[in-house]
Specification:
The structure holds two protein chains of two kinds. Chain A is of the alpha/beta class. Chain A is built from twelve helices and nine strands. Chain A has helices at 47-72, 86-93, 109-115, 119-126, 160-173, 192-204, 233-238, 251-268, 296-303, 307-318, 323-344, 365-380, and strands at residues 26-27, 101-103, 150-151, 180-185, 208-214, 217-218, 221-222, 242-247, 272-277. The longest helix of chain A is centred in the first third of the chain and has 26 residues, at 47-72. By secondary structure, chain B is of the alpha/beta class. Chain B has helices at 6-20, 44-48, 60-72, 91-98, 101-104, 135-139, 152-164, 214-227, 245-255, 270-282, 305-308, 312-324; strands at residues 2-5, 24-28, 53-55, 76-80, 114-120, 145-147, 169-174, 182-185, 198-201, 206-210, 232-236, 239-241, 258-265, 291-295. Classes of the chains: A alpha/beta, B alpha/beta.
């Protein structure tokens, strides 16, 4: 077996390569004014698809705005927005089949919305009420749904990357015409899991799309302090993977790249890496204040590249959207989200019995004993356990 | 019944499991054509093909993460970690992910179809990176089952039960016994129930408790004690998480004494958990303090392996001390 690449060239004096040796172009289709570049090849898109994409963007914008407000009012404990990254997330999910398995990092709620996660389901999760599919076990924004093929979010960073490799491999083994898609930020690409996952996917031939949202910041750490190489795309190439870099604020570029990535992954049983160059317009999370590490001028510059606005202009140019449609959509979702908040926050939290369920497939005797002891204690001191008192 | 060694029993169990369910996949470092460094997976790639039995790159965290992904999508993943000493790069994927997949998702997803097989323990002149017993790191993790067989018969039955269990299992194989333990093993498919300890020998004066390779040690100590007229009851815990409190407590209520033996260091070892629980369950029946005969609180040494080990002599001395208390 050969340990060299097929193109090994011989030289006779020392000659190093560096990151500039690797020229990686960036795919752009849509211009800032909503027109397309002259020679741009458009993705497969029609009016219903464009409307679904835009609808998802508007919902997500409204959700982010309202829930960040709800967090500031102390109604939920935590929130994360995807503001500024909508094109990366919606553009990619819109290229997939509904049964392709999504493994997200945490900022991709637009993707689960696109699949059909209802406003009520969002609220139930964020308020940890008894209707939360996750049974109140994780912080707000850790969505998941078996029915929508969206694996439940796990907080530790990058753990979903090698898992996606396994999911992709399982789809291949089961003979399904589906891929796994894995979202992560450029910060997560520094974790060991990233390298393990990509290497395994390339070697074991797993049909998986690794989608990097290179949004400029990992909490407060800018990319200049995150990696010294040529972004994340260069690593895909290093692992022997089909790789593309796209303008992550360009809905049509992301859609086109992901459509073709999916087709390639299925045809070749192989992974693809997409690096979407975008910008996190909001804070990292509700616990973060970006004014401490980046300037207003920088943020203002990126506001000019607002991906939702750019796609809106394209739709208006096509005659598929009007200003009044747009206003109506925002208004509809503002009312819907507010109404759902009011319902969800009044529902009781998950019953205390759920504290021992799902640790194993069936609770062990020790767990049952610990629950019984806990309930006795709650009965004795009901005022100290308001969530559960009266329901034990 | 044929007499085979523990490696052959493990290979037999893997063959049966893979024949029975074509969604079962086996992978790890060198497990493919080579059959693993101990040859536990010999012949399986030839039998089941490269898609179902394959080498992975050298990345324990990748192996565990990949296992999580496979199992989360309906497969059974049998992942080999070449030595238990090398399980630590995978610990986040095992402890934070495998163990919590079902719980954190509200059972929307689970990875019950995972088994991590890994050779553990000393007695092979392997020094500290080929001899550790890291079971206690996993027994504290809710959601994992931890299983340790003591001989070929157990290895086959417990392994088949672990593969089919609906929870992720960490299966520690006593490598010292891989070839040393030879015994009669039924040819067909059988399982040994997880979560149940086995009373290996009945006795009246003191209960000796261990698992895996240390079972041989406490059996030898019991024979030495018998010559002094001490009757030992011997229990193999077999599953450490969740562990069989009832069988141990029933025995201790009868004998009034308990000695726990494990290779891992004393401090923070699983013997501490057993001792605390049995003290609670059996306080009024105890005739002497619960005794722990364990590894020293040092890394596993090389030349002083014999000194480090909780061997039969140390166990014998502890039995006598307990009887005289």
């Amino acid at each position: 077996m050969s340990n060299a690449t097929s193109t090994t060239e011989t030289v006779h004096r020392v000659s190093f390569l560096d990151k500039d040796s690797l020229s990686i172009p960036i795919l752009k289709i849509l211009q800032a004014d909503g027109t397309t570049f002259e020679k741009a090849v458009l993705p497969v898109i029609d009016q219903p698809l464009a409307e679904k994409i835009y609808d998802t963007c508007v919902f997500t914008r409204v959700l982010d705005e309202r829930m960040l407000g709800a967090q500031r009012q102390g109604r939920i404990s935590f929130y994360m927005t995807c503001t500024g990254e909508e094109a990366s997330i919606v553009g990619s999910v819109a290229a997939l089949d509904n049964e392709d398995v999504i493994l997200a990092q945490y900022r991709e709620h637009a993707a689960i919305r696109y699949r059909g996660f209802s406003t009520e389901q969002f609220m139930n999760q964020m308020f940890s009420n008894e209707k939360d599919l996750g049974k109140g076990r994780q912080m707000p924004i850790h969505y998941g749904s078996q029915a929508l093929h969206y694996q439940t979010i796990s907080s530790p960073l990058a753990t979903q990357i090698p898992q996606a490799t396994g999911v992709g491999y399982s789809l291949k083994m089961q003979g399904k015409r589906n891929v796994a898609i894995c979202y992560f930020g450029e910060g997560a690409a520094s974790e060991g899991d990233f390298h393990a996952g990509l290497n395994m996917a390339a070697v074991l031939k797993s049909p998986t799309i690794f989608f990097c949202r290179n949004n400029g910041y990992a909490i407060s750490t800018p990319t200049s302090e995150q990696f010294a190489g040529n972004g994340i795309a260069s690593r895909g190439i290093g692992y022997g993977m089909h790789t593309i870099r796209v303008d992550g604020n360009d809905m049509l570029a992301v859609l086109a790249a992901t459509q073709q990535a999916r087709a390639y992954a299925l045809e070749h049983n192989a992974p693809v890496l997409i690096e979407a160059m975008t910008y996190r317009l909001g804070a990292h999370s509700s616990s973060d204040d970006p004014s401490g590490y980046r300037s207003k001028e920088e943020e203002a510059k990126w506001q000019q590249h607002d991906p939702v606005k750019r796609f809106k202009l394209w739709m208006m140019n096509k005659g598929w959207l009007s200003e009044s449609d747009d206003q109506g959509l925002y208004e509809k979702y503002r009312q819907e989200v507010l109404a759902a908040v009011k319902v969800a926050e009044k529902l009781p939290v998950t019953h205390v019995d759920e504290i021992i369920n799902d640790v194993y497939d069936t609770p062990t005797p020790r767990l049952k004993q610990q629950l019984a002891t806990l309930k006795q204690h709650i009965k004795k001191y009901p005022d100290s356990y308001p969530h559960s008192a009266g329901r034990v | 019944m044929a007499k085979i060694n523990m490696l052959q029993a493990i290979n037999d169990a893997l063959t049966i499991a893979m024949e029975a369910d074509d969604k079962t996949v086996l992978f790890g470092e060198d497990v493919g054509h080579f059959g693993g460094v101990f040859r536990a997976t010999s012949g399986l790639q030839e039998k089941f093909g490269r898609d179902r039995c394959f080498n992975t790159p050298l990345t324990e965290q990748g192996i565990a993460g990949f296992a999580n992904g496979l199992a989360s999508n309906g497969m059974t993943a049998i992942a080999e970690i070449q030595f238990a000493d090398y399980i630590f790069p995978a610990i986040d994927q095992i402890v934070n992910e495998s163990a919590k997949f079902r719980y954190r998702s509200g059972n929307e997803f689970n990875v019950g179809g995972i088994i991590y097989r890994t050779p553990y323990g000393g007695g092979i002149a392997g020094g500290h990176y080929h001899s550790q017993s890291p079971e206690a790191y996993f027994t504290q993790t809710a959601g994992l089952k931890v299983v340790v067989p003591r001989n070929a018969y157990q290895a086959k039955g417990l392994l088949l039960a672990s593969i089919r269990d609906k929870n992720p299992v960490v299966f520690f194989e006593p490598k010292r016994l891989y070839r040393a333990s030879v015994g009669e093993v039924p040819e067909g498919d059988y399982e040994i129930e997880l979560g149940k300890a086995e009373v290996v020998k009945e006795g009246t004066d003191i209960t000796l408790l261990a698992w895996g390779a240390q079972m041989e040690i406490i059996e030898n100590a019991a024979q030495m004690a018998a010559k002094k007229g001490i009757s030992c009851e011997i229990i193999d815990l077999r599953t450490l998480a969740p562990w069989d409190v009832d069988t141990v407590a029933t025995s201790v209520k009868k004998t009034g004494r308990l000695l726990i033996n494990h290779e891992a260091p004393l401090t923070g070892g699983f013997a501490g958990e057993i001792a605390a629980t049995i003290q609670e369950e059996c306080f009024l029946y105890l005739e002497s303090p619960i005794s722990r005969v364990c590894g020293l609180d040092t890394p596993y040494p090389l030349v002083h392996e014999k000194e480090y080990m909780p061997d039969a002599l140390k166990t014998f001395e502890a039995i006598k001390a307990s009887m005289k208390y």
